[in-house]
Amino acid sequence: MVATATSRSSPVGGPVHVGRQAAVLVTVAVYSVLAPFGYAVLALLCLVWRRDPVRRARRLQTITSRAYRLMHGWLRLTRLVDFDWRSGADQLPRGACVVVANHPTLVDVTAITAALGGAISIVKPGLYRRAMIRPLLVGLGHVEGPGPDPIRAGRVVDDVVRHLEWGIPVVIFPEGTRSPPGGLQPFGRVAFEIACRAQVPLVSLGITCAPVYLSKERGPFRPPTRTPELRIEVLSVDRPDGSTNSRALRADCEARYRAWTDEVADGTSGS
Amino acid sequence: MSEEQLAARIKEIIVETLALEDVEPASIETDAPLFGEGLGLDSIDALELALAFHKEFGVRTQENDENNRQYYHSVGSLVKFITDKQAESAASES
Q1: What is the ipTM of this complex?
Q2: Which residues of B touch A150 (CB under 8 A)?
Q3: Does A188 touch chain B if contact means CB atoms closer than 8 Å?
Q4: Successive 10-residue mean pLDDT values, chain A, 271 residues
Q5: Terminal CA-to-CA distance of chain A, rounded, Å?
Q6: Interaxial angle between packed helices B43-57 and B3-17, expressed in degrees from 0 to 180 and rounded to the nearest 10
Q7: Are B43 and A146 in contact (CB under 8 A)?
Q8: Is the CB of B43 inside 8 Å of chain A's CB atoms?
Q9: Model-level pTM?
């Protein structure tokens, strides 16, 4: 692909590929048409499978993860984001565990869910309480986040620990928001408290996207000239027991992430 | 208990409950933020503190109270929160 012939400069973050901008518009159009249909199907299935919440959540998670696999297949086909959910999927855990990850892009959660085959997440209260979406989120087993009230974290921990008994992994971004380019925000403790309380494995995933795309700084309508490669790798697996302190676990995990981020930054700057 | 004594006791509870190594209670500034910057506490710490305050002062922190973040902002705001709650409780008993 001859980037120079089809690219123009962007005010922030380097040149933009005009061909990919067209692909973004097509993707948004296709999503706008298909999303209401998808929501309607999920809402219908929530009603049909309402008797057994655990079975419903497992089935809906399987459907959602397949939809995300299709979505990432499309993004790969259109060269917007190169991510193969099969790559390294055998290293990922199955069953109840807490998965933590850095959060460089908008599609991290869809990529992780596609690779894991389903995952529960903690959703911001503003989104969780939307009347149209709430039944689907409840059906999928997602949990309402604490919002700005620090005391509600206890209820979130209890809810997630209970949902882990359903055998579905829980994905949490411990930074609570998207990571800054090449860096990390401070980690919160909720994910680590959940892993300690439920005594399930804590799986740390490292996500990279190069060149940077779908970040806070570089939105969907400014695709870079080179196809962004999204990669997920397992950094570590901790197995907390009854004596593990969530504060220490968080500190260890955050230190490992910071070392890994430095390594990635060194590799990028050296290449 | 005066406000100064209460502030000193709250600082001791913070250090004891959260097992903060290398932090002397007296070194915690009364008006400095407890979360994020400052002492760097998080929501799970707040939860542990809420339980400790209930045990020590009989003051219950209600979930879904939109002022919780404000109550737990600093030692100074906690002093006000605890004295207000204790006064409310005394008024309802009398």
Answers
A1: 0.74
A2: 35, 42-43, 46-47, 68-69, 72
A3: yes
A4: 42 66 93 92 93 96 96 95 89 91 96 96 94 94 89 92 96 93 91 96 96 91 92 95 91 96 79 45
A5: 21
A6: 130
A7: yes
A8: yes
A9: 0.85
